[in-house]
Recover the amino acids of this structure.
C-alpha cells in the first residue's frame, strides 16, 4: 500500500506542520499540548510511534477559540484550517478541527476520494472543556452531546444510522448548532477540577485538571513541544501499560488507507 512506503515522508511533513502550529501558538500566547498517540510517541519513542499516521494536539476551550481566530491569517499558504465552518462538507464527530496540508491527499477508512473538502495530511486539534464532577451528570451531558454530533453528521454528510437521519429531519442544522453552543458556553462558565474532550467531540476521556498544568516541554523528533505536566498520569489513564508495545500485527497505520504526496512535478 502507498501509505506504508511513504509513511516516514508523511510523518516529516506533519512534523513541519506541528512546528508551524507551535510557532503560531508561541507568538499569540496560545497554550496547546501533545495529545493521544503523539504524546505516547514522545514519551516512549521520543518521536512518532513508528507506525503512526497523524499528529494529535489539544487545547483548552479558550485557547482553541483563540487559535480558530488567529490561524487562518497566520498559517503558511500550504496549510489550511479545517472546521465544519471553514470547509463545506467536512464534519468529524471525533476531531472538530484539523490543520491540513494542501500538497498531499490522504483517505481515511470512511472516505472515497470524491469528497469536496480538503483531504491533505493533517494535525488533529482537540478542544478540552470543563466537565461536571458528578459522574452521572457528566455521562448525561457527554452522551447527549455525542448523539447531537451524530445527528449533525447526517445533515452535513448524509451518512449515519437511520435513527439519527430521522431525528435530523425534525431539526434544522442551525438549531442543533445552537444547542451545541449552549453546552460549550455552559462548560466555559463552570469551574471544575476535571477536563476532557469537549462537547464537539464524541470522545469521552476525562482527566484531573491539576495533572496538566502548568504545561512543560518535551522532546519530539528532536524538537521541543508542550506536554501535560504529569505525562505518566495522562498516559496511564489513557492507555494503561503504555510502555509495552502492542502485538506486531497491530503495529499498523490506524487512520490512512491511501496516501499521495504531490510535488511541483506531480504526484510522487
Amino acid at each position: 500500500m502507498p501509505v506504508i512506503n511513504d509513511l516516514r515522508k508523511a510523518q516529516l511533513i506533519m512534523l513541519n506542520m506541528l512546528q508551524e502550529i507551535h510557532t503560531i501558538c508561541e507568538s499569540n500566547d496560545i497554550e496547546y499540548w501533545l495529545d493521544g498517540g503523539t504524546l505516547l510517541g514522545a514519551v516512549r519513542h521520543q518521536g512518532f510511534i513508528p507506525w503512526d499516521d497523524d499528529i494529535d494536539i489539544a487545547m483548552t476551550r479558550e485557547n482553541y477559540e483563540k487559535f480558530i481566530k488567529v490561524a487562518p491569517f497566520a498559517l503558511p499558504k500550504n496549510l489550511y484550517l479545517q472546521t465544519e465552518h471553514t470547509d463545506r462538507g467536512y464534519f468529524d464527530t471525533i476531531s472538530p478541527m484539523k490543520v491540513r496540508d494542501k500538497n498531499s491527499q490522504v483517505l481515511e477508512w470512511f472516505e472515497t476520494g470524491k469528497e469536496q473538502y480538503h483531504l491533505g495530511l493533517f494535525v488533529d486539534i482537540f478542544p478540552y472543556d470543563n466537565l461536571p464532577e458528578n459522574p452521572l451528570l457528566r455521562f448525561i451531558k457527554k452522551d447527549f452531546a455525542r448523539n447531537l454530533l451524530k445527528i449533525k453528521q447526517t445533515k452535513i454528510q448524509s451518512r449515519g444510522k437511520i435513527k439519527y437521519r430521522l431525528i435530523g429531519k425534525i431539526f434544522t442544522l442551525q438549531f442543533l448548532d445552537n444547542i451545541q453552543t449552549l453546552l460549550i458556553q455552559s462548560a466555559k462558565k463552570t469551574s471544575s477540577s476535571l477536563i476532557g474532550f469537549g462537547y464537539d467531540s464524541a470522545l469521552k476521556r476525562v482527566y484531573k485538571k491539576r495533572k496538566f498544568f502548568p504545561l512543560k516541554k518535551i522532546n519530539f523528533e528532536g524538537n521541543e513541544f508542550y506536554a501535560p505536566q504529569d505525562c505518566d498520569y495522562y498516559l496511564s489513564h489513557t492507555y494503561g501499560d503504555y510502555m509495552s508495545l502492542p502485538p506486531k500485527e497491530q503495529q499498523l497505520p490506524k487512520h490512512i488507507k491511501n496516501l499521495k504526496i504531490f510535488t511541483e512535478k506531480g504526484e510522487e
User: Anything to note?
Assistant: The radius of gyration is 18 Å. The mean pLDDT is 93. Helices lie at 2-5, 7-27, 36-45, 61-74, 135-157, 162-168, 173-189, 231-239.
